[in-house]
Sequence to fold (584 residues):
Amino acid sequence: MTDTATPTPTATQASEQDLPKRRYAKLAADESREDYSLRYAPHSFRRWSPAMVAGTALGGIAYLADFAIGASIVFTYGFTSGFASILTAAVIIFLTGIPIARACATYGLDMDLVTRGAGFGYFGSTLTSLIYASFTFIFFALEGSIMAQAMHQAIGLPVQIGYLLTTLIVIPIVFRGMGALAKVQAWTQPVWIVGMVLPFVVLAFESPDAWGAFGSFGGTEGAGSGFSWIGFGLGTGVALSLIAQIGEQADYLRFMPARTVANKRRWNIAVLAAGPGWVIIGAAKQLGGAFLAFVALEAVGKTHALEPIAPQIEALKPWLGSVALPAAALFVIVSQVKINVTNAYSGSLSWSNFFSRITHKHPGRVWYIFLNLAIALTLMEMNMFAALNKLLGFYSNVGIAWIAAVAADLVINKRIGLSPRYIEFKRAYLYAVNPAGFGAMAIASTVSILAFFGLFGRYAEAFSTFIAAGLALILCPLIAWATKGKYYLARPNPVWGHVQGDGPVSAEGAAADAVTGEITATHTCAVCETAYELPDIADCPVQSGPICSLCCSLDSECGDICRKDPATAGPVLMPVPTLPARGV
Fold:
């Protein structure tokens, strides 16, 4: 099913009376399932408390891929180099995640919409939607493989059938959107916490000397226990493959309520914890997973030690005996359901954003769940788990170039005036491609991938992700300066956005109550005839009035008149605010 709007005539052909109206398909129109997948999340929908949003977002990082990634890094490069790699990657991920998390929570936008306005342009961010979608199905496949391994270990279920079962089990939850996801994360959190902590408590009593031995572990590939720059660089690259996780955190953070005088402190803590803060837990899990794998290595062998279920069982055996297997299996299954509902949900959002711009159709977010899961299932059946290090090392070159370019725009360009101080995400005001962010990412990722494949020597290969990050951070402001910020706005937004003081202001300047955060200003879209808060509305010369961001995106016949001839931009919706602007 698709939306049923007929082609929109040009401005010279249409009159206000004969313009067609759009009626969205049933699933696409149901925001209880859509969760504003392609648009700004309105304040009327953002009814969860900061703590609730943060708890749901952090529930999504329950995954055990961190265990496998950490174990793989330490087994390959030894403890010293692996430890340094994991901590370095965590610092980079944390620092780049801060401005992105704050922008998503402040403006109610997901990662794709933020990317549009942070230096990439309307179509420029299409490529990053694919990068993000690939992150979700790669890690869905990785997490699903771990769950299938647990099922095979617990009940003897063939892993191929386990792959299918782990894929199907998440569909009913993801289908229902944020409300269902929040409940699942809350209900499963106690089981996950106990399962996460218990193995380390057991080992603290039963194997108190294991940590000391772990510190001198030289790996299984002959790396040795000393520090190696090559091992450090390669290990950091693998750990940095998780940098795109901030996108999944943003898919929850966009539902953060407005920051007000009353909730400012709680809001800031929640955004920091649920945004970049995930990597603190993630790094601890990588090191913890490596430790459990090291302890289990002699008993189960290298192959099974890299599968989180086997080390979990070995750690629990001294206390739980025969119950260790079902207890470990339950923990793994719960953990993987918690993360894979997030992977499937975020993937559906990303594919929706991609196809809406390419096809100008929007059948509904839920249909793209099946596309994302089909790709993930294919990867599982191809046994991608066996090529973990290589796959993640390659992916991180592209992922970090994207994230670093967005962070550079938010931290540098917006603060020194090279780009607008707010996040403009609507097609009506954006160039198709902005060379500042898109160009920086393209150049940085291309050079780093060439380095990754050894074109510039051994050290450049090991440090390819550092090359990607450094180039993106430098090139984004440099290109913005060289182009004088020309490609950020195709035409001025008549009601430009900002956040003023402690009280929130909508992204279009509609002042909100400083205590409640309520924004009451709405306008009715001339196409779908639905009322939207002002941040989701643009002036449309074809419609001679307001148009919502989604109807604007789906219009395939307007010819982008508003961007080609700003003089025809249409009526101003409300007076331009005179309050000073402040960045994110």
In short: The longest strand covers residues 537-540. The chain has a mean pLDDT of 84. The chain is about 60% helix and 0% strand.
